[in-house]
Each structure stands twice: as C-alpha cells, then as structure tokens.
Amino acid sequence: MKKIQMVDLKGQYEAIKEIVNASVIDVIESTAFINGPKVHEFQKNLENYLGVKHVIPCANGTDALQIAMMGLGLKPGDEVITSDFTFAATVEVIALLGLTPVLVDVEPDTFNIDIEAIKKAITPNTKAIVPVHLFGQCANMDAIMEIANTHNLFVIEDNAQAIGATYTSSNGSKQKAGTIGHVASTSFFPSKNLGCYGDGGAIFTNDDDLAHMIRGIVNHGMYRRYYHDVVGVNSRLDSIQATILNTKLQHLDTYNKVRQNAARKYNEAFKNEENIITPFINESQSTHVFHQYTLKVKNVDRDALAQFLNDNEIPCGVYYPVPLHLQEAYKNSRHNEDDFAVTNQLIKEVISLPMHTELDDEQIAFITSKVIEFVNG
Ligand SMILES: *Cc1c(COP(=O)(O)O)cnc(C)c1O
C-alpha cells in the first residue's frame, strides 16, 4: 500500500506535470512575474467558472478577507458576526481592522454558522456577517441573506474551503459558493481544493463599485499611478501561481468529484457504526466538496483514536481543537459560555480523515478498518 498522507499533492502534480512545468518556464521566460497576462487570464477564467462579475486576485486567503472588509468601509467599533468554529484567519482580520468580532455557535450537523445564534447576536452596531462554508459545504445562505436584508448588513462569504460547491436557493436557483453574498474571499493555499504551489487568494463580488474599490486597495490604494486615494495594502497573486491555477482550475470539478467519491466510500464503510457519525450533507441546499472529511465520534476518547491512527501511520487532523471564543487572543467578556454548547461539544468529537484526490480503495479500506477497530475496541 502507498504511504497514506493527509493531503497528497505529489500524485496530483504528477498527472499535470508536463503542462505545469512548461507553463512555469513560459512565465519565467516572459519575466512578467507581477501583474502579468497570466494573472489576468486566471481572473477571467475564474469569473467564468464561478459566474461572478469580478474576481480580484490577491496574495492569500487571509488578505482576501481583510481586503473585502476594508472595501466595504467597515470602521472600528463595527460588530462583525462570525462562526466560533473555524480557522482563526476569519476572526483575526476582524480584530486586526479594529472591528469587534462577535462569535456565535454553529449547527451540530453541518458545522456551519447557526441562524438563530446570528439573530440573537445582532445589535445596533452590527455591520456584517461572515459565514464560513466549512469543510466544503455552504452555510444556509438564504437565511443569512434574509437577515442581512432585514438589518441592512453586509455578508462576506469565507469561501476558502468550498470553492466549486453549488448552492441551491429555496426558489431553486443555483449559484456557486462565494457568489451569493456581497463579497467573498477564497484561498489557494496548496492544500485547498483549488491550491497553487505557494500562497494565493482572491476576492469575488458582483458589485462594480466595490470591485473598483478593492482593485485599488490591493495595490496601495492607487486608482491612478502614484495617487493614493485610500489606505491600501500590497497583496498580489504572482504570475507563476496564476499559470499553475489556470491549469488546475480546468480540473477543479474533477478533483471535487474524486473527493466526493472518496467520501462516499468512507460513508459506506461506516454506515453500520452507531458511534461514528459521518458528515451530514444538506443536499437540497448545497453540494459538499469535502475540503475535509470530518467524523464525529461518540463514546470514545477522540484523542486516543487520533493517537491510534497515527501509530498505524494514518495521518488525521482535529479541526478545530479549541473554539475561537476560548483562544487567548479572542476572549471577550461579551461571549457567554452557555451560548457555545455545540462548538464546545464538537471540539471533543471531531476528527478529520485523509482527504485528497489521490486516495485509493486500499488506503480507504485500511483507514476505515482501523477507525472501526478502535471505536469498537
Ligand atoms: C485557509 C483558510 C483561510 C486563510 O487562507 P490563507 O490563504 O492561508 O491565508 C481563511 N479562512 C478559512 C476558513 C480557511 O480555511
């Protein structure tokens, strides 16, 4: 059996190696390293793929979130509601901009932001909601957009984990994840579903004025050369990453299908295990592109299971082991422990198994047999 990896980037690279290597050499030969034609080409390709009017490439997914918030003109003191159960980048940029992060609980089945908890957290200072499409499945965007319309709030989708997922509204219309809110961010970190070979990110929006604003912000607040109308940042996707992403974008739907297939095989193996809860897919609402394949385990010591898997050379991950409201950097007296019952439970039960495009049946059989052996042991 091939050695099992949490994310196998090598196997995926081997399959596109000739094209990728040639395209990288082309960029080097062209010396158009920054803002070259490849970046523009990728921007257009991603706009077409997503069905969104504007894609603004930038340096990474954390910058993308920050720049989206800067573009919306959020000001210190504005409250931004987001999920307690996500990667820290989401709350980090809110705090960095001097905005007030308001963390709320998630749904126990999808792990996405809880609608009632959002409603409860709204105050006259609330300005935005940041749903995170966690592990590859969209949050309940119909309900979130309705709350936003009622209270005049911005919605910033953190789409770092769900690129390529499709959301179905209650009226039946289908949209790609990251094209529903006022603005969205994504990451091309190598292990993401659409990963480059370094750092990268992008902002999406259908709003022409906001897109214009953001194009200036990513470039030092410049709308005319050497005239700085707003305080900006320097955040660029470089041409080498863009040319790699152009190749990989053509395979994104296939990559996501391969992930879904692996998830189906995991589910099948676990279907009779009452202490292993496989990922819930709210199919009428969103496809799931399995950035992570995350189980909840019951009546078993999750950390001991993780150790057992590691002892058997099966990598696994706990995303996330500490809720954001308990992190030293983000503790805040406004947060009430009783409001985080779901997250506080999830952090003890979740475990993510290897998930990537190169998993084979033999590996899945070995992984699932070891999980079942421990859970029933
Ligand atoms: C990866 C990730 C980010 C940050 O992306 P980087 O490119 O690493 O900056 C933000 N939010 C979520 C939910 C992520 O998973």
Keywords:
377 residues; alpha/beta; Aspartate Aminotransferase, domain 2; Aspartate Aminotransferase, domain 1; 2 domains; 7-stranded mixed sheet; 3-stranded antiparallel sheet; binds pyridoxal-5'-phosphate
Report what the structure shows.
This protein is of the alpha/beta class and 377 residues long. The chain folds into two domains: 9-104 and 111-249, 3-Layer(aba) Sandwich (Aspartate Aminotransferase, domain 2), CATH 3.40.640.10; 252-375, Aspartate Aminotransferase, domain 1. 39% of the residues lie in helices and 15% in strands. The protein is built from twelve helices and 14 strands. A seven-stranded mixed sheet has the order 1-9-8-5-4-2-3, sandwiched between helices. Strand 6 and strand 7 (174-176) form a beta hairpin. Helix 1 (9-30) crosses helix 8 (239-249), helix 2 packs parallel to helix 8 and helix 3 (61-71) crosses helix 7 (208-217). The protein starts with 8 loop residues before the first helix and ends with a helix. The protein binds pyridoxal-5'-phosphate. Pyridoxal-5'-phosphate (PLP) is lined by residues 60-62, 86-87, 89-90, 132, 158, 160-161, 187, 189, 199, 201.
How would a textbook summarize the main sheet? 7 strands, mixed
Report the top-level CATH class of the largest domain. Answer: Alpha Beta
Low-pLDDT runs of 5+ residues are none
Give the distinct bound molecules.
Answer: pyridoxal-5'-phosphate
Q: Gyration radius, to the nearest Å? A: 21 Å
Q: What characteristic shape results from the CA principal axes? A: globular
Query: CATH superfamily name of the largest domain?
Result: Type I PLP-dependent aspartate aminotransferase-like (Major domain)
> What value does the average pLDDT take?
97
- What's the CATH topology name of the largest domain? Aspartate Aminotransferase, domain 2
Tell me the helix content.
Answer: 25-40%
Distance between the termini: 24 Å
Question: What structural category characterises the helix and strand content?
Answer: alpha/beta
